[in-house]
Specification:
Layout lengths: L1 H39 L3 E5 L2 E4 L2 E5 L3 H18 L1 H12 L1 H5 L3 H14 L13 H13 L10 H21 L5 H25 L13
Amino acid sequence: CCAKNKKKKVSSSLLKKRVIKMLNVLTFLMYPGLSVKIFQVFKCIELDKGEMYLFYDVSVKCYTPYHLQYIFVAVVGIFVFVIGIPLCTFLILYSKRKIIMGTTEKSLQLKEQLDAELGSLYVDYEPQYYYWEVVEMLKKMMLTGGLVLLAPGSSAQIVLAILITLFYLTLVLKHAPYAEEEEDSLQFIATIQILLTLIGGLALRSDDVGIYENGMMS
């Protein structure tokens, strides 16, 4: 009977760890796309003189009671998802930082248990950069959802994306946060590729007649 209870506790603990790990993966997969959808609610364009319509659904007139309902939901979504997910992730990791960076025998034992639940958030990074996954999330959010508010395909949008990528590249070069040197090099190459793609897009955009927009917001 004791053996059966012990086995049941082990199975329950293992199931809990697997559920937490699956939720972590799903959260980080959904985060960039969810951010884009939330910011799209605020994107309006002027079709008729003085008449603003939702850019991604021109059947919706902006700032009407119907649209304001979605704005309210989007504002809540910004606090709960766009800000809440990275903030909660950082606070959880910060509360476990002594275990993650610990070198004592007790810390190593606790770290094994923590790795099974939250290891996907920090095992690829140096212990002192346990929070780097949050930096990755913010970068993805700014390169996807944050740029939605700017005129699509405009030079201002591309320049801002280049600045964000350059800033992230500087952080990677300065801190080399990954546990393996090869992963630092791979991240450097991937970020350079994104940067060159954006520069190429800006070069193509400069061939258009309307490169210098009167305003950044459309």
